[in-house]
Amino acid sequence: MDLERIALPPRGPLDLPLSVLEVGCAGRFELITQEKGPHGEGFPLTTLPHGLPPYAEDLASELEQKFLNSPEWLPIHHFEKSHRFWPREKDTHSLFEVDVTPVHSTLQADRNPTTGELLGFTEALVDNMGLSAKNSLSFQRAPGPPAEALRGSATNYPFWPGGMDEPSLEQIQAKEELEEDIDFEKDLLTVPPGWKKGVEFTKQELKASPGLLNLTNLLGALDTFELGSSSDEEDMAEKGEKKQKKKGTEGKGTEAGDATPAEQAPLQRANSLEELVLKEVTPTPKSSPPAAPAPTAEPPKEQWAIPVDISSPVDDFYKRIPDPAFKWPFEPDVFQKQAILHLEKHDSVFVAAHTSAGKTVVAEYAIALSQKHMTRTVYTSPIKALSNQKFRDFKNTFGDVGLLTGDVQLHPDASCLIMTTEILRSMLYNGSDVLRDLEWVIFDEVHYINDSERGVVWEEVLIMLPDHVNIILLSATVPNTLEFADWIGRIKRKKIYVISTLKRPVPLEHYLYTGNSQKTQNELFLLVDARGTFLTKGYYDAVEAKKERASKHSQTFGAKQPMHAGAGPGQDKNIWLSLIDMLRKKDQLPVVAFTFSRNRCDENASMLTTVDLTTTTEKSEIHVFFQKCISRLKGTDRQLPQVLHMVDLLKRGIGVHHSGILPILKEVVEMLFSKGLVKILFATETFAMGVNMPARTVVFDSIRKHDGTNFRDLVPAEYIQMAGRAGRRGLDTTGMVIILCKNQVPEMADLHRMMLGKPTQLQSQFRLTYTMILNLLRVEALRVEDMMKRSFSEFHTRKDSKAHEYRIAQLSSILANMEIPDTTGQLSDLEEYYRAVQDLQEIREFIQRRVMESLNGLKALSVGRVIVVNNQEHKNALGMILQVSSDAANRTFSTLVICEKKPPEEDKETDTQTHLSSPSEVPLPNDLLRTKLFLPEGPCGHTIKKLGPSDIFGITTKTLRINAERILEDFKKRQIPRFRNDPPGPSAATATQELLRLAEGDPEGLPFLDPINDLQLKDLEVVESVIKTRHLEEILLGFQCVHSPRFHVEFVRFRERQRVLEELEKLRFLLSDQSLLLLPEYHQRVEVLRSLGYINENGAVELKGSVARQISNHELLLTQLLLDNALTDLRPEEIVALLSCTVCQVRTQEEPQLPSVLQKGIEHIRSVAEEIALLQRKCGLQESVEDFVEQYKFGLVEVVYEWARGMPFAEIARLTDVQEGIIVRCIQRLDETCREMRNAARVTGEPTLHAKMEAASNMIKRDIVFAASLYTQ
Q: N or C: which end of the chain has fewer CB within 10 A?
């Protein structure tokens, strides 16, 4: 050994067989002195799977050097050391543990039916075993865990929606597994999967040997078809005639006598034998013509909305309801009594009543009724503030009331739950067990369905409600209540009783106010009185008063014109001071002043520094109440500028109410106003939305508002909603509405339309959202198409579906009885000929229509122009225009038309004959190419007809000089019975002879004015149509079928068959999903979801889709951010700041100062939004990329970031120009988003993000932003 050692060259320090082994995770090392093997494999350097942590050298460069620069280093063939696994221990005992099987049977008591004596027990099998919220839509399924009872779970199936026709799941499960509905006529496959050809099972074999048919089938069908294939031809001919008489089908009657198709007929009948057996046995009565009027007779049965008469009093109310569920201190009105009677009968009602009429009485009775029945009621409102108010009111009345809004959950087990519509929607989709006990759902302010943003939620909820739930709809007066109720009744398959009030309980008087100083403060002009009469005198007086002041103003200041009287802030102040002074003297306070700008509300209130409308006792009451309300706030929050400013205003009896005010202050203002301590309230439109706070007077600062896109006048619905706040029931005889005329007096027409116009109709705002699509796609039994079919937007096309189905059955039986036209041999191109004729006639009609609409066409149709008339009475008859009506919408042409001279008594008879014969005419090429003019067989007569544009077949190049007036007078005179037999006057006779001469001179047709060259119609469609017409005219002569002797018969037969087929196709299209307006958009949205991987090729919802379902708004963007880990590495306050872009609706002028992390985050969100927008465009959706990206506004990112980091609210408010109330609303909504994101993170299995979202939610939940509502205390 020593010699060998000496022989080796000395080793360098790197060649020594020393190595370090890291043991475990604690960082303990041991020295290893083992030589490397022959292939260089050494001892592992660590017992950890990933080796030593990188040291000195950067990990990326080490990887690059080892794996990329020297690939020969990779031990490709020596993988023994790299493969590691831990063998699992077998646990056979785990296989023996199974869930407890549900009980298969139950015991039922057998009793004597007369005495009720117990005879014994029998075992009965239990249906619906194994049903759960994860696999069934049935109410028979077991309830879920108590924690999910209220809101349900995102993995639950919804309950089966009421009114849907599909079989319920119990029925499907009651069938045995193998028992399926197979139609052995249509559903059997003839080609095995993957094969190109299969076995032919068509009915051609039957044609050869009809004897193979089942005898019972033949006997059953004997009444319904003719045995034309029998060998005893003579015997059967009589039977055939009898059958034809019985059926009375015209088509067969005409064909019975034809000799040519006689050989064909027996085969035909044999061929359709089985079809006749299967189809004809049941619908025989439908195929006979007497049943034809049935479709018109059927729709009246389908009346779902039933108007209730409230004109006469309900005398027997207390007899019918001796023990009412609820009693009021006052006597209910007739409409309230009628509603209560229907509630007692468990009917659904729609109450459309004027503001302050007392709709809440109906809701209160329903709540009392459900408490009596020990069921539950859900009361939904469109606005959170309204939910809070109703909670307080109903809590005081009933006690057992709960509240569910986005951020509050109080007494969720109460019998009456008040919630926003969005929460009810999520409960329906998530299969909440609350629905099991639900008796009533009350929808308040249903006219909110017109809201473009949230209207769709109402429709979804109404469609998804289960069958046992009754509906109460409360709404302001709208014109189409019956139509809306009919829609709900139709989709829920239950009658809806519509109750409307006729007039307001407190009538309104509308005034114009032009005063602006102490002197003119009484310039108040009545415009509409309490009876609703518009007084023009009041309007002109107001205009006069304005003019007078303007002229005085110009006299005082020389020629210099005044800047709009009432334009400056000083002028505004004078107007308000004089108005308030006048109202105070007239005892017309309190007053609500509606102003359509938050800033102007604040300015108006701040201007009135000198106004003080309260007494000292009222001042102290206000002070005590205000201090009590804000006592729950933190010290710094009590000193907020808005709080201090509001105290000052309120003590003087002035209030401000708009979305920029802090929610707690808004509630203080509302409560003080309802107590009568706020004398003048400056409010925006939201105050009128359902908040039940009437005043004595309402003042409109202006009647123009900005609706998000531009300035416009108020529409009648908005004006009525706001003006309706005037007049307190039981306190005032009339309500006073005043419009301030600051600049000019508004136009009379605008005022009339606004005050007395019809309110806006309820319109569908249904649109598809990704959440809706994903919610329905995961449940196989519910289809998005069914949801779309039942939407209010599809109501007009779907309401006649029953009549359509009836007509389809009728047409199908007619079609089965029709002979199939012969298209063999010479008639083989009959179908192409028919299509060419149809196209030619349609294109000619289109060109003629465009000519009649064009300016040059109307010029050509002047008096004296010769035209060709073609309608039911006249076939290609020449006519001459005598007079053109001035009505542009329904233009008529009084025309002298030549006809046969006939005795007057024959008139009607010939008319009906020509009318009947016209459809059966067979168009031949010569008739189509040349207009063969009508020539009378006997002496030529004339008539004068008023023709519409469709009656004029062509405009000829000829004109005649005539005295049109004389001809018209002469004809009018001859219509009087005394002069009926007088000969026509010379003018009429000359004109008739002239037209006859033209017709005889050119019987093949006069030349027409060319639409392009003569009438200068250069429109592309017209030019293309003319070219197409010429092409069709050229090919017409090439058809062979017209030379066949049987052409006429077969063409008529083919045309009749085609007409039936076309009508059938049209009706089937109307009933199919293809006619849905939103179907293309649905397919586009599904394509977007498929491209993003939310659903697979078969439409099943994937994991990504399950994540998106947890999020209600901006689901695509938030899911993408969550799945690409953009949020996981950020801190909670940074995540919540970035998410504020989804709830912030306002633009800010100030540029926020943001750290670089947030800047990067914003850029990333914008890039993700752009990718989604581009994908939507690619899939065909219309929304532009800019609009999609622009909806995410980052104005409040800094505010939310600082708030989450703990900055006080007073400092937050200084960071931005956005008003305090809007900041609070934004952060409150952000909390909902945080919770949704937290749930979504749980679905994806990301505990880090789940914890961060939880932390973020807790960070923003503090102080004034989440101060509890005063109504819930």
A: N
Same domain for 1002 and 957: yes
By the 10 Å C-beta count (0-12 exposed, 13-18 middle, 19+ buried), 440 is classed as buried
- When pLDDT is averaged across residues 110-131 and rounded to a whole number, the result is 84
The residue among 989, 1021, 1043 that closes a domain is 1043
Residues 478 and 543 in one domain: no
- Tell me, yes or no, whether 1205 lies in a domain: yes
Q: Calculate mean pLDDT across residues 456-476.
A: 90
The single-letter code of the amino acid at 1102 is E
Q: What is the mean pLDDT of residues 665-673?
A: 85
Using CA atoms, how far apart are residues 238 and 225, in angstroms rounded to an integer? Answer: 13
* Residue 266: C-alpha distances to residues 230, 231, 257, 579, 819 (Å): 8, 10, 14, 95, 11
Backbone angles phi, psi at 656, to 5 degrees: -130, 135
For residue 310, give both structure tokens. Answer: 């409230």
Highest mean pLDDT among 877-881, 979-983, 1123-1127, 1135-1139: 1135-1139
Classified as helix, coil or strand, 993 is: helix
1214, 1130: one domain: yes
1169 and 1204 both lie in a single domain: yes
Residue 838 is encoded by which pair of tokens?
């149809």
What angle (nearest 5°) sits at the alpha carbon of residue 658, between those of residues 1223 and 1153? 25
Residue 965's CATH number: 2.30.30.1160
Q: From residue 203, how far is each of 60, 208, 213, 266 by CA, in Å? A: 74, 10, 11, 16
Residue labelled with tokens 């069938």 = 175
Domains contained in the chain, number: 5
- The reply to whether 872 falls in a domain is yes
> What's the confidence (pLDDT) of residue 875?
77
Q: Is 848 helix (H, G, I), strand (E, B) or coil?
A: helix
**Which residue in 163, 869, 766, 774 sits closest to 457, CA to CA?**
766
Q: How far apart are CA 261 and CA 827, in angstroms?
A: 13
Report yes or no on 245 lying in a domain: no
The Cα 680–Cα 652 span in angstroms is 10
Instruction: Output helix, strand, coil percentages for the chain, rounded to the nearest 5.
Output: 50, 10, 40
Residue 1040 and residue 827: Cα distance in Å, rounded?
Answer: 7
H runs (alpha helix) in 1124-1184: 1132-1139, 1156-1178
Radius of gyration over alpha carbons of the chain, in Å? 42
Domain membership of residue 1186 (yes or no) is yes
> Do 364 and 420 sit in the same domain of this protein?
yes
What does the block give as tokens for 91? 């646990």
Give pLDDT tens digits for 78-114: 555 555 666 778 888 878 877 777 777 888 888 888 8
Lowest mean pLDDT among 360-369, 408-417, 1192-1201: 1192-1201
Compute the distance between CA of residue 653 and CA of residue 614 in angstroms, rounded to an integer: 6
Q: Are both 379 and 524 inside the same structural domain? A: no
Q: Quote the tokens at residue 1125.
A: 């880990």
Question: Roughly what angle, to the nearest 10 degrees, separates helices 1220-1244 and 663-674?
Answer: 120
Crossing angle, helix 770-777 and helix 1079-1091, to 10 degrees? 80
* Dist. CA 1039–CA 833, nearest whole Å: 7
Does residue 219 register a pLDDT over 90?
A: no
* Residue 220 binned pLDDT confidence (cut-offs 50, 70, 90): very low
Could you give the CA distance from residue 830 to residue 1046 in angstroms, rounded to a whole number? Answer: 11
